[in-house]
Design a protein that fits this description.
twelve-stranded mixed β-sheet; about 30% helix; 10 helices; single chain
């Protein structure tokens, strides 16, 4: 097992939270137009010259793992599979002296053709977004008729050994909330791990309404009407509370970011595709690591910038309070 760098110190904020999980966005581009995420016409994508290069990403992840104690890296987007040469980048990250656990969050389109290559490159597992099993609902929600591609991607991920394959769904009242139990049954049947996520005020349109958010309590009520649920709890600082479906080995999770916030145990930090470091999903300020990289900063200066950013992390996201302010970037530009 590789040894920690001699200069490695934990990445700790002023509340004593130790950060070991990096969410790394590879692109803000996406090949779906989900109604709860972005408008039908899409967004103004980042110019390619503003997006971090593979070399820049590898250098920043090396600093994070060797100096800051980051042990897990989740590759996100936008849709990360649209980034060219992704398996080669994964291989470089997996070959670092202190290689982190590597996972990927994807909409599943294109996963069938690259799941094996990603696994061979060193990717450990995937999270696939799937909000509905009904083709007509999928087309309406995503504005694309690609449900068969997502299902094929899930199958390919499991066959390639990218396990556990996690399926993420965001229930929206009056849209897909009647499919909660069906999605869980689908996951049980195919050996996937189902997770339901409360919708959050991170859409590009600013149209989020709390009344349309399906709460964790409601999700559990829907699941409990069909399945007997055995509490499992929360694994370390993972965002999902989990329950086992009695009589099976299947586990279902609920991420209640709004109604049951878990900010007190947060161990995540985020890096956007254009190299902006964010100490919280709902942060209203960013630290420009790309400018430092391209300005000739050495590793010690980059490490210091990382620590300074985390020192300013707030105790929580404050959704629902009078002082809450949406971040300027939508979720697709921050990285999931």
């Amino acid at each position: 097992m590789p040894r920690p760098h001699s200069d490695q110190r934990p990445l700790v904020d002023r509340f004593g939270r130790i950060h070991t999980d990096l969410r790394l966005s590879l692109t803000d581009r996406c090949n779906l137009r989900c109604t709860y995420c972005m408008p039908a016409e899409g967004l103004a994508w980042l110019p390619r010259e503003e997006v971090l290069t593979d070399d820049e990403i590898v250098r920043l992840v090396a600093i994070a793992t060797e100096r800051l104690g980051i042990t897990e890296v989740r590759l996100t987007g936008g849709e990360p599979l649209v980034r060219r040469g992704l398996p080669a980048l994964v291989a470089r990250l997996a070959d670092l002296p202190l290689a982190p656990e590597l996972s990927l969050t994807t909409n599943g389109i294109g996963l069938a053709r690259c799941a094996t290559a990603l696994r061979e490159a060193g990717l450990g597992r995937v999270n696939v977004s799937l909000d509905t099993l009904r083709p007509e609902h999928f087309a309406a929600l995503t504005r694309r008729d690609r449900l068969p591609d997502v299902l094929a991607g899930l199958h390919a991920a499991r066959a390639a050994g990218l396990t556990p394959v996690k399926v993420n769904a965001v229930p929206v009242r009056g849209v897909n909330d009647d499919e909660i139990a069906d999605l869980a049954a689908f996951a049980v049947e195919h050996g996937y791990r189902m997770r339901f996520i409360e919708s959050m005020p991170l859409d590009a349109q600013g149209a989020w309404e709390r009344d349309r958010m399906v709460t964790a309590e409601e999700i559990l009520d829907r699941l409990g009407a069909r399945f007997a649920l055995v509490p499992v709890g929360r694994e370390d600082n993972a965002p999902a509370e989990e329950w086992r479906i009695a009589g099976t080995d299947a586990v279902v999770g609920v991420i209640a970011s709004v109604t049951r916030p878990f900010c007190g145990g947060c161990d995540r930090v985020r890096l956007t595709a254009d190299g902006q470091l964010r100490n919280c999903l709902f942060a209203t300020e960013e630290s420009d690591l790309r400018a430092l990289l391209r300005g000739g900063a050495d590793d010690t200066e980059l490490e210091a910038a990382w620590r300074t950013c985390l020192a300013g992390k707030a105790p929580g996201h404050a959704i629902g309070s009078a002082g809450f302010r949406r971040p300027d970037r939508p979720m697709s530009a921050i990285g999931g």
